[in-house]
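Bit of a strange request maybe. I'm writing a small parser for structure token strings and I need a real example to test against, not something I typed by hand. Could someone generate the tokens for this chain?
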Amino acid sequence: MPSGDRSPWRWVPSLYFAEGMPYVAVMSVSVILYKRLDVSNADIAFYTSWLYLPWVIKPFWSPLVDILKTRRGWILTMQLLIGAGFATLALTLPVENFFRYSLAVFWLLAFSSATHDIAADGFYILGLNERQQSFFVGIRSTFYRLAMISGQGLLVMLAGFLEDRMDGITVAWSITFYLLAALFLLLFAWHNASLPRPAGDVSRHTGTLSDIFRESIQTFVSFFRRAYIGRILAFLLLYRLAEAQLVKLSGPFLLDPRALGGLGLSTGELGFAYGTVGVLMLTTGGIIGGIVAARHGLKYWLWWMVAAINLPNLVYVFLAVAQPSSFLTINLAVGIEQFGYGFGFTAYMLYLLYISRGPHSTAHFAICTGFMSFGMMLPGMVSGWIQELLGYQNFFIWVMIATIPSFLVAALIPLDAEFGRRT
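Reply from user aminoacidic:
Good idea to test on real output. This should exercise your parser:
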């Protein structure tokens, strides 16, 4: 049972904001950074997609997080390392061969962030009962995505503001990452004071290294022995197939000049589009998704959520064809897509909780998110090449075609009709 002396409202929102921020820095802000530093779309998509790898392979070390040390201890340690990583990243940008060195730091940040994810997701399961898990899944998804939009939005707006006032793009982005390092020191201090101490959050290291390895293998194998594992894996890999490609090129599309098929936004305008209307619509979609799932169960809302996460991608087809000059129209389109994502991603996170229940919930949840990241990594690696081959208009049409597998796998997954329903 969760610790009763600290309300989940004190730590769930901030914990998932802390989980989302390094992820968005590694996977999304890096794309914008390299675009501003004149790296090609193909190189950006290929090399930044490789940064998914720590999230793909994290199931192999997740049992160690489950066994060694408490989840609370892992969370605090990783937040300190992430803060140090952002400070180091700021140091690499002004040097020669910045692309190589910054990618290496992004790799270290990715491994630290992936380990933080394992601990935070396991702590969520230990710190909340099933009803609270259903209620707060919308809150956690909202603040996770809020971190992503803050990174793509407010952080990028800050970098754009500094670009206009500092001596060069590199200096502006270095200052931005120093400030991000300071933020993680504050998050560490807050969570050190606010995280509860659930009775189940204990180190289970009682044997030899051989015993730990054996238990890790057994934990990993037990996940693949569950019924309908093929359908489950198909869902994990294909539910976000369209988004995996869209997310790598949406930023470059908005930044590229109109002569190249883009919309020609500045760095600050791009941040504003994601950091204002995008934040509001995402928050609304995520909260509504959690509330309705808690009332009627995931199975009742599954198809609405599948449609919500896929169909709003049509706004990018419209933007690429029409190339509107109205900044209001661009913000409205981004807001529609973000609302759909906030609502539709709730289904994905709830299903991960559903199939992770059991004695190895932390490790099994990590395995699920590893497959999710693998499903994002491979399509993302080729998305830049596809865009350069097809152009932006045809690329976004291709993205809509890529939504079809999401609907197919959703029809096949096993799901208890009562899961997620408030009792």
